[in-house]
């Protein structure tokens, strides 16, 4: 029986690393972008390896079970990244118009290169507007 903990952590780490490598952009110098991407990838790998190690260390799983779970997580994370970014992303605009998507407030942000900066700026502007309205 593969380790579920290892599987989930390696799935998340693989998907996260692929997102960072192919979708995460920093508007600063190329060197800072490379350093930041490398740092994020290393942190994700360390987290996954620590969880996998803990499963063996605590004697919940054998090495083989942890390796099987890790490989399964890597395969599933890679497949899901491929499916989302090559197949589903073409249909995101259509999917967001469904009633269930509107109810769940699902939006298509694939066209925004730096979603974190976009979200930060939007929330900061909203807070500024609310603060001004409160003072008036």
Structure description:
The structure is a single chain. With 136 residues, the chain is mainly alpha-helical. Helix content is 76%, strand content 0%. The chain has six helices and no strands. The chain has helices at residues 4-23, 30-57, 63-87, 92-95, 99-103, 115-135. Helix 1 packs antiparallel against helix 2, helix 1 (4-23) packs parallel to helix 3 and helix 2 (30-57) runs antiparallel to helix 3 (63-87). The longest helix has 28 residues, at 30-57. The mean pLDDT is 91.
Low-confidence parts lasting 5 or more residues at pLDDT below 50?
A: none
**Helix/strand-derived class?**
mainly alpha
The percentage of residues in β strands lies in under 5%
Shape: extended
The count of β-strands is: 0
Separation of the first and last Cα atoms: 63 Å
**Average pLDDT:** 91
Integer-rounded radius of gyration = 20 Å
Order of helices and strands: HHHHHH
- Major pleated sheet: none
- Count of DSSP-assigned helices: 6
Proportion of residues in helical segments: over 70%
Oligomer: single chain
Q: What's the quick description here?
A:
The chain is mainly alpha-helical and 136 residues long. Helix content is 76%, strand content 0%.
């Amino acid at each position: 029986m593969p380790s579920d903990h290892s599987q989930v952590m390696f799935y998340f780490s693989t998907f996260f690393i692929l997102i960072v490598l192919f979708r995460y952009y920093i508007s600063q110098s190329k060197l800072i972008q490379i350093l930041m991407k490398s740092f994020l990838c290393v942190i994700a790998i360390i987290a996954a390896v620590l969880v996998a190690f803990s499963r063996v260390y605590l004697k919940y799983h054998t090495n083989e079970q942890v390796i099987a779970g890790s490989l399964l997580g890597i395969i599933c994370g890679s497949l899901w990244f491929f499916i989302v970014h090559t197949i589903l992303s073409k249909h995101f605009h259509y999917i967001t118009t469904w009633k269930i998507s509107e109810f769940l407030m699902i939006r298509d942000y694939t066209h925004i290169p730096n979603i974190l900066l976009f979200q930060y700026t939007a929330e900061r502007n909203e807070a500024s507007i609310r603060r001004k309205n409160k003072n008036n």
